[in-house]
Design brief:
The chain is an alpha+beta fold. The chain is 45% helix and 30% strand.
Length: 125
């Protein structure tokens, strides 16, 4: 997914450089910038979740948030979107200061959420 985002950002930037219409150049430049930011996020922040015996850590662009197992609840959530069943993991840090709710899907985890939640629950005990 990250490779596709980088390729699209590069293509949009090249197209913006070659187009002769100034408003179109600005629009394509903005699209290329947004695609590059998305590509940067998928490159730097994935996989977002790490866990060990002491707790859990979720990484983002601005840093990593870490919680102990006593501060978080981990659960699997299945939803149906666009006729397709999807699974996500909710990390609910309601006992932390400040409280947080993080929802992680397959792209965030780099693996199937059902497998990841089993490993998280095994680490927690």
């Amino acid at each position: 997914m990250a490779i596709l985002a980088w390729a699209l950002a590069l293509a949009a930037g090249a197209w913006a450089a070659l187009i002769g219409d100034p408003p179109g150049r600005v629009l394509l430049g903005a699209v290329a910038l947004l695609l590059a930011l998305a590509a940067l996020f998928t490159t730097v922040a994935r996989p977002r979740l790490t866990a060990d015996q002491q707790g859990i850590a979720v990484r983002g662009l601005v840093g990593t948030r870490r919680w102990t197992w006593a501060e978080v609840n981990v659960r699997m959530v299945r939803t149906r979107r666009l006729g397709r069943d999807t699974a996500t993991i909710e990390v609910d840090a309601e006992n932390a200061d400040p409280p947080a709710l993080v929802v992680l899907g397959r792209l965030d985890l780099g693996a199937d959420p059902e497998d990841v939640v089993d490993e998280l629950l095994a680490l927690r005990t």
